[in-house]
Amino acid sequence: MASTPPPPASSRPHALMLARGGSKGIPKKNIKPLNGVPLLVYNVKAALASEVFEKVVVSSDDGEILAIAAKAGAVPFRRDPATATDAASSEAGILDYVSKTEECEALCLIQCTSPLTSSSDFRNAWTHFVSGNYDSLVTVVRSHRFLWELKNGTAQPKNYDPAQRPRRQDWRGELVENGAFYIFKVPSFRATNSRLHGTIAAFEMNEATLVEIDSITDWNIVEFLAKDKFHDLPRSWGF
Questions:
Q1: Phi, psi angle pair for 56, to nearest 5°
Q2: For 30-89, where are the alpha helices, taking DSSP H only?
Q3: 14-18: strand order across its sheet
Q4: pLDDT of 32-77, one tens digit each?
Q5: How many CB atoms lie within 10 A of CB 135?
Q6: How far apart are CA 75 and CA 72, in angstroms?
Q7: Among 165, 166, 198, 223, fewest CB within 10 Å belongs to which?
Q8: What are the catalytic residues?
Q9: How far apart are alpha carbons 55 and 38 in whole angstroms?
Q10: Are 16 and 94 contacting, i.e. CB atoms less than 8 angstroms apart?
């Protein structure tokens, strides 16, 4: 997809990354070095390079995370500890930010766990969001996987007929939410308390971005892919 120019400053959304300090599966995951660079830095750099956002904000209850975010070029935001517990939702973290940032009319929630997102992804997704006058946008990857479920102890296909098994080239596959980022209008978020609401756009991304870092296995896969994608570029970021 061809890259698009950044929007005028008057209409720029804010970018928000939620990076609490108490991650359990991988301790301090958001600042754990990925090929030598703290994880959250990858998306801070991509978001800044996109020139889409009025500001790129990292919200955290952890001082070390906020210091690394600031060094990377993001605006640190001290997150209310009540919104950074194991039980707290991302929506609570979003509300914490927008309730203290009245000027924010559109927001892009960026997930630290998807470091393969490119600056062009942000630019092209924002253009798609604005051009269609959508209320929210979800990022997706097209998958050609056959899905099954168990019903009463037996396996049942969910998205194809085994008697007419399609060839990959004859099947458009399924769109899978990859969790890379979400864009939404803030007034309608306030009304629904959901990042996805109203008329929803889908923005399709490269299949490598399907992997989100939730486990050590995910980490090892993404670290390999990041090395292949970025080569030595992260070394120039000063970490």
A1: -110, 115
A2: 39-50, 63-72
A3: 75-78, 55-60, 14-18, 106-110, 174-185, 136-143, 200-204
A4: 999 999 999 999 999 999 999 999 999 999 999 999 999 999 999 9
A5: 19
A6: 9
A7: 165
A8: 165
A9: 20
A10: yes
The conformation of residue 175, written as its DSSP 8-state character, comes to E
Rounded to whole angstroms, how far apart are CA atoms 159 and 173? 9
Confidence of residue 82 (pLDDT cuts 50, 70, 90): confident
Say what angle helices 119-131 and 39-50 make with each other, to 10 degrees: 50
Average pLDDT over residues 148-156: 93
**Which parts of the chain fold into alpha helices (H)?**
39-50, 63-72, 90-98, 119-131, 186-192, 216-230
Q: Are 106 and 31 in contact (CB under 8 A)?
A: no
Cα distance from N-terminal residue to C-terminal residue, the chain: 31
The CA distances from residue 1 to 16, 94, 127, 237, in Å, are: 25, 30, 12, 27
Region of 46 please: left (phi>0), alpha (psi -120 to 50) or beta. Answer: alpha
CA 197, 50, 6 angle in degrees (round to 5)? Answer: 80
- Asked if the model's pLDDT at residue 81 lies above 90, the reply is no
> What pLDDT shows up at residue 140?
98
Alpha-carbon distance of 16 to 58, in angstroms, equals 6
Residue 117: what residue type?
T
Q: What is the pLDDT of residue 3?
A: 46
